[in-house]
Write a structure and sequence with these properties.
The complex is a heterodimer of chains A (about 170) and B (about 425). With about 170 residues, chain A is α/β, with parallel strands linked by helices. Chain A has a single domain, classed as Alpha-Beta Barrel (Aconitase, domain 4), CATH 3.20.19.10. Chain A has helices at about 15-20, 30-35, 45-50, 70-75, 90-100, 140-150, 155-160, and strands at about 5-10, 55, 80-85, 105, 115-120, 125-130, 135. A seven-stranded mixed β-sheet of chain A has the order 4-3-2-1-5-6-7, with helices on one face. In chain A, strand 2, helix 4 (about 70-75) and strand 3 form a beta-alpha-beta unit. Chain B has about 425 residues and is an alpha/beta fold. Chain B has two domains: about 5-260, Aconitase, domain 3, CATH 3.30.499; about 270-410, 2-Layer Sandwich (Aconitase, domain 3), CATH 3.30.499. Chain B is about 30% helix and about 20% strand. In chain B, the strands form five sheets. Chain B has a five-stranded parallel β-sheet, with helices on both faces. The termini of chain B are far apart.
């Protein structure tokens, strides 16, 4: 899978209310429709401006708040290639991996809005093509890599009939 | 080596001695979803092609976030949960029965258990000495099928509470103070363990308020040891047989220790748009409000309503201010009725709304208008939380909220105590 796209910058503490707000609670049963509003309360134009494969780039504590898995789901459905942040909130992190949304922990200060990025998971770096710099990625824990590679938690359980992580 | 509460409970559920940072497969005693996260969990569960739930009696589905339903799409989501409960024999908590976390501590969760919930404030049950944490719908779907999950054993922050609250200062002020101190990600992946000489004086209601907000500092759990108060609480709910002593070892290892003297705390407010943006009432400039919301899993218990009613008794809500009161459960509502608190609220000019989450999650029954300000006893004030990104949410104790409703601005309740 090629991971190449444009950076859309967001700040610190982007909550699940920014990503999938409560006022759109009724759309949770229609994720493709909800995905048209992804991150709307942080950047109203994001969903219309982004193209498939582009990246969400944020600061600290991305995804704090509610356990609503609809938040990572609609980021994935919208076609975001990966979310890059300095740090992630715990439940969001777990949810994203469970449903197969790639998260990248790195120093996002070195990325500007609209920078072209290429991510090399195997080598463990983000290549900022616009600024021509390479930034290391904090490696994902083994358990997360396994779940991602197997297509998420449901696929993992279907494949093994049980947890095969520890 | 000595263990913290989290390590002890997880050791028992993993069937071996566990260490912080270790990845384990843990048995799960009870599992819950609510109407916002449940339909997705049902959907994911069905992908696993299982014909039955691992433990139907302890798979609990709550209809509380959009209750009663304000829209047909949400009514249809409720139908999904009702039909699933019927088909698989799960427990259903209907419209009006109350907010999931309040219902869980009232009726379902016991000391020493592990609870996984598809709701971030599942940590509320930590006050009963249970390891309770929030996850997403897919995690829950797998637990519904297998009765277990994978967990990373968290290291623990010890929060040592000493002294007594001064007048006008409550458990809510304490937890807001702590979150302001360490930040919204100050305890990410950690368990918080509340201990110290002040704990024995904290009521169960106060402990629930504190545990409820552990996640607002990023924590995975907010734990209390069990004591006579826990026993008495369980007895009131008719399940004292479930009492179990839960206590950290005296030589347990903590990653960090934070000392708080309750007597030094002041009424504390979280300001828009993050919970850790706290100020004491003295630091806050006069802030006019449009709406006051007393309720939720954080502060909608009978003890909270008593405090608010005491302040509102014989008084009127300031003209132009909307006061909404939502008892956290039907049980709380009935107690408040019997004690005359509902009458006090209604006479003061409050609207009583259905026990549930409604306004706090921005679904219905208290959505803010553009530029409006709400003072709420809930646990979150994120931008857009109450249904409008142009709204402003401040968080406080029920006492500060009740007094502010009378004054029309965020006021210092110590003036009348």
């Amino acid at each position: 899978m090629e991971l190449k796209g444009k950076a859309f910058k967001f700040g610190d503490d982007i909550s699940t209310d920014h990503i999938a707000p409560g006022r759109l609670f009724h759309l949770r049963s229609n994720l493709p429709e909800l995905a048209k509003h992804v991150l709307e309360d942080a950047d109203p134009d994001f969903a219309s401006k982004m193209n498939k494969g582009d990246f969400v780039v944020a600061g600290n504590n991305f995804g704090l708040g509610s356990s609503r898995e609809h938040a990572p789901q609609i980021i994935k459905i919208a076609g975001v290639g990966a979310v890059l942040a300095k740090s992630f909130a715990r439940i969001f992190y777990r949810n994203a991996i469970n449903i197969g949304l790639l998260l990248i922990e790195c120093d996002t200060d070195k990325i500007n809005a609209s920078d072209e990025l290429e991510i090399d998971i195997k080598q463990g770096f983000v290549h900022n093509l616009t600024q021509n710099i390479k930034m290391p990625i904090t490696p994902l824990p083994d358990v997360m890599i396994k779940l991602l590679n197997e297509g998420g938690l449901i696929e993992h359980i279907k494949k093994h009939g049980d947890f095969d992580l520890v | 080596m000595g263990q913290t509460i989290a390590e002890k409970i997880l050791s028992e559920h993993a069937g071996k001695q566990v260490k912080p940072g270790e990845l384990i497969i843990s048995k799960i005693d009870a599992v819950m979803v609510q109407d916002g996260t449940g339909p997705l969990a049902v959907n994911e569960f069905k992908k696993l092609n299982k014909t039955k739930l691992f433990n139907p009696e302890r798979t609990i589905l709550f209809i509380d976030h959009a209750a009663p339903s304000p829209r047909k799409e949400l009514s249809n989501s409720h139908t999904v949960l009702r039909e699933f409960a019927k088909e698989y024999g799960a427990v259903l908590s209907e419209v009006g029965e109350g907010v999931c976390h309040q219902r869980l501590v009232e009726s379902y969760i016991n000391p020493g258990e592990v609870l996984l919930g598809a709701d971030s404030h599942t940590c509320t049950s930590g006050a009963l000495g249970a390891f309770a944490t929030g996850v997403g719908s897919t995690d829950i779907a797998v637990v519904m099928a297998l009765g277990k999950t994978w967990l990373k054993v968290p290291s623990t922050y010890k929060i040592v509470l000493e002294g007594e609250f001064s007048k006008g200062v409550y458990a809510k002020d304490l937890i807001l103070h702590l979150i302001g101190l360490i930040g919204a990600d100050g305890a990410t992946y950690k368990a918080l363990e509340f201990t110290g000489s002040a704990v024995k004086n904290l009521t169960m209601s106060e402990r629930f308020t504190i545990s409820n907000m552990a996640v607002e500092a990023g924590a995975k759990a907010g734990l209390f040891e069990t004591d006579e108060k826990t026993y008495e609480y369980l007895k009131e709910q008719g399940r004292e047989d479930k009492f179990k002593e839960i206590k950290a070892d005296s030589d347990a290892k903590y990653e960090r220790v934070i000392n708080i003297n309750l007597s030094e705390l002041k009424p504390t407010i979280s300001c828009p748009h993050t919970v850790d943006n706290t100020k004491t009432i003295e630091e806050l400039e006069r802030t006019q409000i449009n709406q006051v919301y007393i309720g939720t899993c954080t502060n909608g218990r009978i003890e909270d309503l008593r405090i608010a009613a005491d302040i509102l008794k014989g008084k009127k809500v300031k003209e132009g201010i909307r006061l909404l009161v939502a008892p956290a459960s039907r049980k709380v509502f009935l107690e408040a009725l019997k004690e005359g608190l509902i009458e006090t609220f209604a006479e003061a000019g409050a609207s009583i709304v259905t026990s549930g989450c409604g306004a706090c999650v921005g679904v219905h029954a208290g959505i803010l208008g553009d530029g409006e300000v709400c003072l709420a006893t809930q646990n979150r004030n994120f931008k857009g939380r109450m249904g409008n990104t142009e709204g402003f949410i401040y968080l406080s104790s029920p006492a500060t909220a009740a007094y502010s409703a009378i004054k029309g601005y965020i006021a210092d309740v110590r003036e009348v105590l």
